[in-house]
Amino acid sequence: MKILAIETSCDETAAAVVENGTKIISNVIASSAEMHKKYGGIVPEIAAREQLRCVIPVLTEACPSLTTVDAIAVAIGPGLVGSLLIGVETAKTIAFATGKPIIPVDHVLAHMYANFLDSNRENSSRAQSRDNLIGFPAISLVVSGGHTELYLMKSVKELTWLGGTLDDAAGECFDKTARLLGFENRGGVAIEEAAKKCKVPSAKCKVKLPRPMLDDSFNFSFSGLKTAVLREWKKYEQHDEALINGFAYEIQEAITDVLVKKTLRAAQKHQAKSILLSGGVAANSRLREKFSILHSQFSIHVPPAQLCTDNAVAIASYAFFRGEPTDWHEITAVPDVSVEF
Ligand code: KG4
Ligand code: ZN
Asked: Please, are residues 309 and 280 in contact by the beta-carbon 8 Å criterion?
């Protein structure tokens, strides 16, 4: 079964065709990230106008003929309403015009299904059995710009929400502290790059940040960490490159320590066989490195970095494994669609 998926929840316009939830036939992503740089954050109006301009070219590049696909999937939320509407209304129009089934998808849940894809197009037999490589029960951590959520996965279909952030998401913490350090947008990537340049232990920067909410719950809280960074930052009069790199290092250590410890505790409690990472922050190489150390206890799954950030491939995979075809009249953009159940 081939599914054409559309994802326009934030500043990306993405379309992809995926076969049987695992085999990528096409994957096209246009981003307006550069256009938001000078504003220090995503401007929803600019994102939506750019998506309106890009959606048909991206769609036709990913799927030159609609006769080749069996269903349409679309991200209905969470995300920016103006952006979501472009993908949702485009997908509904295709469903109406072709009569093909349409599957609405929660984009945060979809992130985890990037783990079920095999980007190696040549090796389809391995791709078909990819889901078997993930042992259940599994613990799945989704870490994106707006979400930090932990799920128990008893099978490819059965998800239980265990906890999530009470305030800022991990990605938001990377982005906001990056801005304080003087970086423009793409905060997570900027912090990762600066942290790599930090010589540890740094003579210049001995900043030590808290590891918030390491209690027994599976909830997270990152807003206090952001405040702690601000407080420490103000103690220094000169903010040179060595200091910035030192801060970046410690911010990355603090965020990744919390993510690893909470996920590990959930995996131990539920006797998980596998741990799945996904969402934009899962592209972070330090986080990937810290999880990889746990490989003797659990099988660790992380999508390639370009499939961690928003993409339509994961939307198609989710639709195949867990989605439900819905009458297109009933589908609408839901900016705050629930990720807790
Ligand atoms: O999943 P995503 O593309 O969009 C949302 O659904 O939010 O995630 C975007 C988030 C941003 O906060 C971005 O700074 C973060 O993922 N991110 C990273 C890295 N790449 C992207 N955070 C840390 N390290 C990275 N390499
Ligand atoms: Zn996302």
From this structure: yes
Domain that holds residue 113: 2-117+306-330
Q: Give the Å distance between the CA of 88 and the centre of ligand 2.
A: 16
pLDDT per residue over 55-103, tens digit each?
999 999 999 999 999 999 999 999 999 999 999 999 999 999 999 999 9
What pTM does this model have?
0.93
Kindly state if the Cβ of 311 falls inside 6 Å of ligand 1. no
Closest residue by Cα to residue 87 from 59, 46, 45: 59
151 in Cβ contact with 204 (< 8 Å): no
Task: Tell me what pLDDT residue 35 has.
Answer: 87
Pocket test for ligand 1, best of 168, 179, 189 (most atoms within 8 A of CB): 189
How many whole angstroms from its chain centre is CA 188?
12
CATH of the domain at 252: 3.30.420.40
H/E segment holding residue 160: strand 159-164
Q: Is residue 139 part of a domain?
A: no
- Ligand 1 atom at minimal distance to the Cα of residue 286: 24
Tell whether 11 and 112 lie within a shared domain: yes
